[in-house]
Amino acid sequence: MNPTIWMALGLVLVLEGLGPMLFPAVWRKMIASLATLPDQLLRRFGGGLVVAGCVIYYMLRSKISA
After folding, report:
1. Integer angstrom CA distances of residue 15 from 12, 22, 52, 62
2. For residues 22 and 26, what is the distance between their CA atoms, to the nearest angstrom?
3. ∠40-46-50 over CA atoms, to 5°?
4. Which helix (H) or strand (E) holds 19?
5. Sign of the C-alpha dihedral, residues 31, 37, 43, 49?
6. pTM (2 d.p.)
7. What is the distance between the alpha carbons of residues 53 and 22, in angstroms, rounded to a whole number?
8. d(CA 59, CA 66)
9. Per-residue pLDDT tens over the stretch 30-47
């Protein structure tokens, strides 16, 4: 697998870990409030994140290749 993918995954894990490490109480409240949202809203939010991630990946990949 491409080392860039592993670096990106590592960066995601670092960023995801900052919330519970630095602000555990706020992070817990945020997760609890997310758990109460309807499935359709969570699907839209997740889909938006996937699309944004793909766009960023495509933009960076085409810039690096050129």
Report:
1. 5, 11, 16, 24
2. 9
3. 140
4. helix 3-22
5. negative
6. 0.69
7. 24
8. 11
9. 999 999 999 999 999 999
